[in-house]
Automatic annotation (TrEMBL):
Protein's UniProt name: Potassium-transporting ATPase subunit KdpA
Domain of life: Bacteria
Keyword Zinc: no
Ranges that cross the membrane: 76-97, 118-140
One Pfam family from the record: KdpA
Organism: Pseudolysinimonas kribbensis
Keywords: Cell membrane, Ion transport, Membrane, Potassium, Potassium transport, Transmembrane, Transmembrane helix, Transport
Length: 149
């Protein structure tokens, strides 16, 4: 469970830390607002959030309006892209090794079958819950605030 949790939380952690540091460090924030962000306010926040989300998910594209050619964004997005590619690989390999070392356990009344609707529902529900708790607060600060403005 620890390895699976670390794998699941790697990408959101990189995205939120990168975006947060971009606005928390005063010199970087000033550089972002004056140089990189084409649209100020909540749309600018969304631009930076999308840049880090795209980098952490191995794409590296940018939202229209951001100029990511600054020293901070070049280095931060590069580090996030590197970590977003290789850290999950380490956790998946460690999880595979851990599962390979385990002995087979016979099926009993307490076994949860993975081909039944209960497991499928729990998996989908957990995925939606983790995703919502990770990204909804940030989305509420950016795109939703811009839409309600």
């Amino acid at each position: 469970m620890k390895l699976a949790s670390l794998y699941i939380l790697t990408t959101p952690t990189l995205v939120l830390l990168g975006t947060g540091l971009s606005f928390a460090i005063p010199a970087v924030k000033t550089d972002l607002v004056t140089t990189s962000i084409g649209n100020p306010g909540t749309h600018g926040f969304s631009e930076v959030l999308y840049a880090f989300t795209s980098a952490a998910n191995n794409n590296g594209s940018a939202f229209a309006g951001i100029t990511a050619n600054t020293s901070w964004l070049n280095s931060a997005l590069g580090v996030v892209m590197f970590l977003g590619r290789f850290v999950p690989i380490v956790f998946v390999l460690a999880l595979a090794g851990s599962l390979a070392q385990q002995d087979r356990v016979p099926v009993t009344a307490g076994t949860l079958p993975t081909h039944r609707p209960l497991f499928i529902g729990m998996l989908i529900g957990t995925t939606l819950l983790v995703t919502a708790l990770t990204y909804f607060p940030v989305l509420a600060l950016g795109p939703l605030a811009e839409g309600l403005k």
